Amino acid sequence: MKICFLILLSVPMMIKGQDSGIMFDQELTWGQVLAKAKAENKYIFVDCYATWCGPCKDMDRNIYSSKQVGDSMNAHFISVKIQMDSTAHDEPRVQQWYADARELAKNYAIEGYPCFLFFAPDGRVVSEELGYKKREEFLKMSESARDPKRLAFYNKLTEYKDGRREYGSLGELAQFTEQVVGDKKLATVMARDYMSNYLDKLSENELATKTNIEFINSFYKLVNSGDAIFRLSYTTPSKIDALKEDSGWASALVMTTIIREELAQKYDEKSGGKPNWKRIEKEIWKRYPLIDAKLVMLEYEMEYYRSDAHKDWLVWANVMDEYIGKYLQGKGANFVAFTLNNPAWDVFENCNDKRVLKKALAWIDLAVKLAEPHPIVQELDTRANLLYKLGRQDEAINQELVAIDTLKERKSPVVDEYRQTVDKMKRNIPTWSGK
Q: What angle do helix axes 313-327 and 333-350 make, rounded to 10 degrees?
């Protein structure tokens, strides 16, 4: 990226309507921001936002306007806001950042908004975070970004590349390399090195720490059945769950590993006849009697029949029905929402088989019922769209209007998107992408 070292005199501007809070520099280019930070020995905070992003607007209203946040940030950071999308109404100041916005999105693999980027005075990125943050969370995040330890990791990274290993801190370095530096390939090598040559050699008590579990959570796809953490999660899942403060985490790690080793590596790309699921289930049960082999199989079959190599919507939906009947009874509304809404929306977006669409509608009906009397708006929207795709236009419009009323009550900024959906329904225009 080309850096301009010309620094223009500018007056930092507040977000419109603020009396206190973060002072965002509104006039400098990215090159000038970097040069100013170096000259003043200040860190850089970049708020990457999108015009359609509700949580981004909430950050403006609730966090950036805070005097406490402003006092802390203004003392240590040069702060800039960068609009990552583009609209027909963008001001020239926003337009001049288009190229830099694209470059930042590419360099730091920005996948959601709001995204917070923190840079050291020398321009090296030291932290990247996603999602709405409460005041204390934001302050803690910004303070952590200024921790000298983060810059020290760059020196450790150089040492690692030169062949020098410091295993005591290699786990943190692997996380830093993936999350901050953005080199996922190197981070994967480092993480596997750390597991094999350090974690697997620890005693059970040394391994069972919150720090180690959080590291494993970052690289769970690298765990294999020969690892100490796998054995511990398999034999004493409650102990690991307590460290993670997440009931079911250990079992999920075990199941994910078994699916990858016993199923995905053998059947994902294999063509030909359908695997003998019952025989495979018995084999897994014999090898791992402490886990629910049936659940393992259903989890994998759902992935299998949804994949491009083996796609069969109707069989997949039948497996979903079996999974729902066996494992979702008695679960909480939020869990059911996540488990049912996403596949139901997937059907709406990508499948035209009315048999499958009707099954998806039944799933979302269950989710909506369980959420009463506090409806989850995304479920209402999914239900409306499924009804519409099934040709039940009036019901669909009425359902989407209920979703809109719920959004109004909650003062949600995405209500316009739902209004556009109703407009399409009234004009008989597809509301799905048509993939």
A: 170
The distance from CA 347 to its chain's CA centroid, rounded to whole angstroms, is: 21
What is the C-alpha to C-alpha distance for residues 304 and 267, in angstroms, rounded to an integer? 8
Buried b / exposed e along 321-348 (16+ C-beta atoms within 10 A): eebbeeebeeeebeebbebbbebbbebb
Specify the range with the lowest mean pLDDT, choosing from 42-51, 194-203, 327-336.
Answer: 327-336
* pLDDT number for residue 260: 95
The single-letter DSSP state of residue 138 is H
- Sheet containing 13-14: give its strands across: 13-14, 23-24, 77-83, 43-49, 115-119, 125-130
* DSSP category for residue 162: T
Residues shown for the chain: 435
Q: Pick the closest to residue 190 from 151, 232, 226, 156 (CA basis).
A: 156
Rounded to an integer, what distance in angstroms lies between the CA atom of residue 196 and that of residue 223?
10
Find the DSSP H helices in 277-392: 277-287, 293-306, 313-327, 333-350, 354-371, 377-389
Structure tokens at 414: 């995405």
* CA pseudo-torsion sign 298, 299, 300, 302: positive
* Nearest in space to 74 (alpha carbons), one of 15, 22, 27, 139: 22
d(CA 55, CA 114): 7
Q: In angstroms, rounded to a whole number, what is the distance separating the alpha carbons of residues 44 and 55?
A: 21
pLDDT tens-place string over residues 182-223 = 889 999 999 999 999 999 999 999 999 999 999 999 999 999
Q: What gap in Å lies between CA 181 and CA 163, rounded to an integer?
A: 19
Least confident of 65-79, 363-377, 419-433: 363-377
Could you identify the residue written with the tokens 């990125």? 125
What pairing do the DSSP bridges indicate for beta strands 43-49 and 115-119?
antiparallel
What token pair was written down for 70?
């402003």
**pTM (two decimals):** 0.71
Buried-exposed string 286-301: b where 16+ CB fall within 10 A, e elsewhere: eebeebbbbebbbbbb
Q: What is the mean pLDDT of residues 376-383?
A: 93
